[in-house]
Amino acid sequence: MIEILVLCGLAFVAGLIDAVVGGGGLIQLPALLIMLPHTAIASILGTSKFVSIAGTSIAVQQYAKQQKIEWGTTIPAMFAAFIFSFLGARITSLLNPSLMRPVILVLLIAVAIYTFSKKDFGLLQISKFSRSQQWIYSVVIGSVIGFYDGFFGPGTGSFLIFAFVGIFGYSFLTASASAKIINFATNLAAILYFFFTNNIIYTFGIPMAICNILGAFIGTKLAISKGSQFVRKLFLVIVSLLICKLGYDIIK
């Protein structure tokens, strides 16, 4: 009983953070690993994805109702991310994902420095490309980050937001909305695999999913009401935590 209560509380926090800037997995996945130490890794991952997609679906619904979404770039990226997330998950059986940690750590540090140094980054929305160019870039972004999410995962939401702000000139709020839709696609690809291999623990997953949904609902309300400045600040906090986590994993 105590395990469910702790996991539900942390799933709520993960859903709230993930709805705004991504990075909920930083809280939720380690919590499952700690609270269920004798459970197979595949079942831990499957349960975490099951919980995450519940909150993400609510975040997508709320953003779609209350925030303008750039569907022309989001939909191509979503389909590409779905396909390449599945491919990335398959590659994990051939390569060791931990080899990616130093590379991702360097990229995250660069993202943090760039975002912190450019005070107006992501606060205003500026269109940079024609529709055809946007489509091409969105497919590339969806493919690369979708593959990364399936293969390794940490920081996917943050990388998506940074890409949509930096490449397309979106505000942080618009980028966060698009990132949630693409994240839904990558989570769905993983869920299909874990569902058909019976690697979802529903006794933990269902109550956690309910709490994650509640957190996601509150998170999207906060993001929409407080705007891009709030999202930018939380983005920097989550990226900093990711840097600390990956750095610790490398040196331990």
Automatic annotation (TrEMBL):
Keyword line: Cell membrane, Membrane, Transmembrane, Transmembrane helix, Transport
InterPro entries per the UniProt record, alphabetical: TM_pro_TauE-like (IPR002781), TSUP (IPR052017)
Residue intervals passing through the bilayer: 29-48, 69-87, 99-116, 136-153, 159-179, 191-218, 230-248
One annotated Gene Ontology cellular component of this protein: plasma membrane
Membrane topology qualifier: Multi-pass membrane protein
Major location (coarse): membrane
Subcellular location: Cell membrane
Entry similarity comment: Belongs to the 4-toluene sulfonate uptake permease (TSUP) (TC 2.A.102) family.
Protein name, UniProt field: Probable membrane transporter protein
Species assigned in the record: Pseudanabaena catenata USMAC16
